[in-house]
Amino acid sequence: MRRALPGLFAIPLTALGHSGELLEPHDLWTAWEFDPGVVIPLAVSAILYARGARVSRGTTPRQMLFFWLGWFVLFVSLCSPLHPLGESLFSAHMTQHELLILVAAPLLVLARPAASFVWALPFEWRRRIGRWTKWHATQTVWRLLTGASAAWLLHAVILWVWHIPALFDATLSSGAVHSTQHICFLGSALIFWWALVHGQGRRNYGWGVLYIFTTAVHTSILGALLTFAPSPWYPAYGQATQRWGLTPLQDQQIGGLIMWVPAGLVYTIAGLALFAAWLRASEPGERDSMVEGREYAH
């Protein structure tokens, strides 16, 4: 069924995904999907950010760039032909997940868009949100969720549990299960990256390096298991891969390599960046020197 493309995106595409049908190679570039459950949150977030993000309100140009890049990656992951292709190829499904976890999530965390979203709201709503964030219960839950150990464990458990064959196969037959999987992956990734980038503090950067390193290790193990498995894990793909010139096992091997090599590279780069920040933080800061200078002056 064809639907009109929302004017917000202004992309000259006329065909959407074929509901209930596996994607054929000749339909790939017209298989854009605009599920209201995806488009509406994306549109609302874009409108709120465009209204609320201002340099005068503390949002830097770099943060704006990070947000729009992260938003675009979300759009491509969830609305482009990559999404329906993931119903035919496990490797495409894995690519979609890696974009959510390793590209969109860290970019959005670096953007820190929450304040901009709040600025876009009416004054009374901003006051209520401000009071809500000061509640002891709210702060306690937030500290528990964004503690590095808890965030690491949550992210690891979600990654492994959702790759259980029965659960993964269920995403191909149920839109609700598929949406839940994406929410779990993106949500846990946002918490994970937030805990490492903003929640650790300078004195705990070393622990952040450890959490990234161990995440790289256990995701690489999962990728290696998928790559070297003697038989396919996910029967639901069945004959769907053949129309793309792959056997189910070959498709799974490609997906495993995607989780193993490119994802491991991203974690390595992030770990090195955090390690560099740790080294900088361990050196005497210019601020300390300035404070000492002022004390001597008095």
Q: Which structural traits does this protein have?
A:
single chain, 13 helices, disordered N terminus, disordered C terminus
The radius of gyration over CA amounts to: 22 Å
Counted by DSSP, the helix tally is: 13
The low-confidence parts are 1-19, 286-298
**Domain module count:** 1
- Principal-axes geometry comes out as globular
Structural class: mainly alpha
Q: What is the percentage of strand-forming residues?
A: under 5%
Kindly report the average pLDDT value: 84
Tell me the helix content: over 70%
Secondary structure: number of strands: 0
Give the helices and strands as they follow along the chain: HHHHHHHHHHHHH
Distance N terminus to C terminus?
76 Å
Major sheet description: none
Overview of this protein structure:
- It is a single chain.
- This protein has one domain (25-122, 141-285).
- It has helices at 36-52, 61-79, 82-85, 90-111, 114-119, 123-134, 136-146, 148-161, 165-173, 175-199, 205-228, 248-282, 286-297.
- The longest helix has 35 residues, at 248-282.
- It is globular and about 55 Å long.
- Residues 1-19 and 286-298 have low confidence and may be disordered.
- α8 packs antiparallel against α10 (175-199).
- The chain is mainly alpha-helical and 298 residues long.
Secondary-structure topology with pairs:
Blueprint lengths: L35 H17 L8 H19 L2 H4 L4 H22 L2 H6 L3 H12 L1 H11 L1 H14 L3 H9 L1 H25 L5 H24 L19 H35 L3 H12 L1
